[in-house]
């Protein structure tokens, strides 16, 4: 039976995440201690105690989710009840792709965290210098979302960027265009349109400067070719073939759409049967329910979930 490890992206963060795992498992505490040293500030304190408004910033939430997911992963490896659970393939939603690369053994924890820190800061800077936003559109297919974006655009950038599951597509672009898309959504038959509390227009051309900064950071990072564990790419729902393709994919995903639904459909077509969502929240578990109701995702985000294994 083929097994996939799935890792959440930005938006999965919540105050208190990782706290019970660190209290109960020294291996998880060591991951957070290592992260604090690399980052130069107390990430564990922000994860466990907040405040929420600081944890939710792009610059903090990205390392926070990466480290919390890595800590849960470490416990799975060290815990006798779960140490035999190993992935054949890994996947991560946007930011989660970095944890997927780490779990597949192609990047070290240290390099992964430094890249995520630089990515979060670069995206925050790009967001601060552009006036962008994102809106989740519920209940429309790709064609309708494309038509909606065309009308909402009025010469400003706006596109579908997160194709998460049937009936849930996130659009991203100039703030005014997002405002218009939210108002126009009902006209196109949407059930609802929800503005996301994010810093900017992620996965669009408005993130060009962040992509350039990330490209520089990647030059100083070591990424191995995939070996025993496959990693599926957000940008095209295909498996990464080598380290150059991985670097290209990480840069490109900042300015182009995330094809999560197609990634999961590819894994299902390739007979992956066992899925674990590892890290904070239950976002990916919920998306899979919409992609294929027959597939059960085992969600591992806290001590209770680990003990139930």
Sheet with most strands: 5 strands, parallel
Approximately how much helix is present in the residues? 40-55%
Distance between the termini: 17 Å
* SS class: alpha/beta
Brief summary:
The chain is α/β, with parallel strands linked by helices. The chain is built from 14 helices and 9 strands.
Would you spell out the secondary-structure blueprint of this structure?
Elements (H helix, E strand, L loop, with lengths): L1 E6 L11 H6 L1 H14 L3 H7 L2 H4 L2 H21 L10 E4 L3 H8 L5 H21 L2 E7 L3 H12 L4 E8 L2 E7 H10 L7 E4 L12 H12 L10 E2 L11 H10 L7 H10 L2 E7 L4 H9 L5 E4 L2 H6 L1
Parallel strand pairs: 1-2, 1-8, 2-7, 8-9
Antiparallel strand pairs: 3-5, 3-6, 4-5
Helix pairs in contact: 2-5, 2-7, 3-5, 5-6, 5-7, 6-7, 7-10, 8-9, 10-11
Name its key features:
globular; alpha/beta; 16% strand; 4-stranded antiparallel beta sheet; 309 residues
Could you explain how this protein is built, in words?
Helix content is 49%, strand content 16%. It has 14 helices and nine strands. The strands form two sheets. It has a five-stranded parallel sheet. Strands 4-5-3-6 form a four-stranded antiparallel sheet. Helix 13 (283-291) links the parallel strand 8 (272-278) and strand 9. Helix 2 (26-39) crosses helix 7, helix 6 runs antiparallel to helix 7 and helix 10 packs antiparallel against helix 11 (243-252).
